[in-house]
Amino acid sequence: MIATNAFTRNLLPEIDLVPARGQILLTEPVENLKLKGTFHYDEGFYYFRNLGNRVLLGGARNQDFKNEETDELVTTVFLQNHLENFLKTVILPNQDFKISNRWSGIMAMGKEKSPIITKISDRQIVAVRLSGMGVALAPKIGEMVAALV
């Protein structure tokens, strides 16, 4: 079973997928945080939510698509500054905050939005290209892979 998502091209270079790095930041606890819930902005290119009294913010790949088509697990000054400015001007205007953590994760996109779940030989199954929805799709993908075994 090959379920390496964005890293699959290292094993199967011909497969239709493009790595897409997502960058995230997390604030320290914010005093009197009013934000409650999960939100999307700019057609889903930004996503944010509260984690208790903290704000988790990620996205903005659309600000630098070409450089974010990578499987390098690093953050960039450009996008982290952009996210922090979005936090300051849109989510927490006129509020003090500090960033506690910054990280990135790699998704797999492709020409089609649907995942690739297929047998490539009698002994190999591929389950990749989850288009940023891996956590949500994992149980169903598992069922589909089990049916192929």
Automatic annotation (TrEMBL):
Pfam families: DAO (PF01266)
SUPFAM superfamilies in UniProt: Nucleotide-binding domain
InterPro entries in UniProt: FAD-dep_OxRdtase (IPR006076), FAD/NAD-bd_sf (IPR036188)
Positions of the FAD dependent oxidoreductase domain: 2-148
Cellular-component GO terms for this entry: cytoplasm
Name this polypeptide is given: FAD dependent oxidoreductase domain-containing protein
Organism: bioreactor metagenome
